[in-house]
């Protein structure tokens, strides 16, 4: 029983991972946003709609280096999704904020995630919701540990 259950869980997780990436890309990269990638959408999400964020904060949220992020930011800036400015407190710090076009992409991406969450939790009762959250937290904790142990 355990071997079969482990195999089923593995298949479900692999399929889920692939389906999320594929479905999300198809849903969020529409005619309006065809000039950016799904990865760009996640960068836009990491920038957020609050106050400007520093490159280092955004890189940390995405688990990438500032150098890696810079290439993507150049492209997003050229396409009109972001603006960069120097901090008035520390000229070494580059702050990033979304333009109106970037905010529109942010909300478009957020709406997909809202729709996805609603589809997942729609028929769950409170106890099932707690179990789902506990399972997803355990999975997230595993990825956090694996990501930092390498």
Structure description:
This protein has 150 residues and is mainly alpha-helical. The chain is built from six helices and three strands. It has helices at residues 2-28, 38-47, 55-62, 66-78, 100-121, 126-148; strands at residues 53-54, 82-86, 94-98. A three-stranded antiparallel beta sheet has the order 1-3-2. The protein is globular. It starts with a helix and ends with a helix.
Which SSEs are present, and which pair or pack?
Layout: H1 2-28, H2 38-47, E1 53-54, H3 55-62, H4 66-78, E2 82-86, E3 94-98, H5 100-121, H6 126-148
Antiparallel strand pairs: 1-3, 2-3
Helix pairs in contact: 2-3, 2-5, 3-4
Concise account of the structure shown:
It contains 6 helices and 3 strands, in the order H-H-E-H-H-E-E-H-H. With 150 residues, the protein is mainly alpha-helical. The longest helix is centred in the first third of the chain and has 27 residues, at 2-28.
Calculate the terminal CA-CA distance, rounded to whole Å: 32 Å
Derived structural class: mainly alpha
Sheet with the most strands, sense and barrel status:
3 strands, antiparallel
Percent helix, as a range, is 55-70%
Shape: globular
Q: Report the mean per-residue pLDDT as an integer.
A: 91
Computed Rg: 18 Å
Q: Write the H/E string, N to C.
A: HHEHHEEHH
Order of strands across the widest beta sheet? 1-3-2
Number of strands: 3
Give start-end ranges of low-pLDDT stretches: none
Number of helices: 6
Our estimate of the beta-strand percent is: 5-15%
């Amino acid at each position: 029983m355990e071997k079969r259950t482990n195999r089923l869980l593995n298949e479900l997780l692999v399929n889920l991972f692939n389906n999320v990436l594929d479905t999300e890309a198809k849903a969020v990269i529409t005619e309006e946003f065809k000039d950016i990638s799904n990865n760009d959408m996640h960068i836009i999400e990491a920038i957020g709609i609050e106050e400007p964020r520093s490159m280092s904060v955004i890189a940390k949220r995405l688990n990438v280096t500032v150098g890696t992020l810079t290439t993507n930011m150049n492209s997003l800036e050229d396409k009109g999704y972001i603006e960069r400015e120097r901090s008035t407190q520390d000229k070494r710090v580059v702050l990033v904020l979304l333009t109106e076009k970037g905010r529109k992409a942010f909300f478009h991406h957020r709406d997909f995630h809202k729709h996805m969450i609603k589809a997942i939790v729609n028929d769950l009762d409170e106890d099932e919701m707690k179990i789902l959250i506990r399972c997803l937290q355990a999975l997230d904790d595993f990825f956090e540990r694996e990501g930092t142990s390498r």
